[in-house]
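FIELD: query
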Amino acid sequence: MDLGLKGKTVLVTASSKGIGKAVASMFASEECNVAICSRKKDELIKTAAEIKSKHKAEPFWCVCDLNKSKDIENTVASVKKEFGSIDILVNNCGGPVPGYFRELSEPNWQDAFEQVLLSVVRFCNLIVPDMIVKEWGRIINIVSITVKQPVDNLILSNSLRMGVIGFAKTLSNEVAKHNITVNNLAPGFTLTNRLYELAVERAKREKVSHEEILAEMSKQVPMSRLALPQEIASVAVFLASESAGYLTGNTIHVDGGWVKGL
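FIELD: result
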């Protein structure tokens, strides 16, 4: 299937590893102009080299802390200078710190708000106006399955990612007439560094091995396994395609059937 993405410019945030990296790599396979960003320069250089080796096209990269508005402004300006405009925005971020309500401070909440929700608003503020002028755009927010079924010990993620859902649904209605779609992608348990870290943290708390925790997670999924990052990425790329042009304002969970609700 021709997804109609060749030559489109895509910016994928927090994309030096995990799901973000897989998304950037898959867009590169569709011959897009790919821009990646994260806080760590060494990881960006490594990821850019890996994608170039695999797809013969080196992504443009920027160091960007999603909690800093100036970094976001600089990133968008740099990508526009390199490619002219941004057609597809994939808002991705690492998960905020785990913890139960009484374990978390107000600064924890503020950091999570900046990272998870306000970064999405800031990127959209800078990119949506150009999409409106071009009468075409795709915004994909990678959230978490916790927006459908909250997970214990992840109250920051449970709360603030739902804010992204509300923002996206409202924005989708405002920009639909300009041929701009806004959708959310909610991955289930996926084999990333983040999931490994959560498993290790929970294993210490429960005094078991992290392998046991990962095995237990797999058993919760009807498909009896964890997702691979590229399985999430393939859905993100489809949402950006011409074939998905009538799909907007939705939250799609890619979870192997984990969510119990209809």
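FIELD: remark
The CA atoms of residues 184 and 251 lie 4 Å apart.
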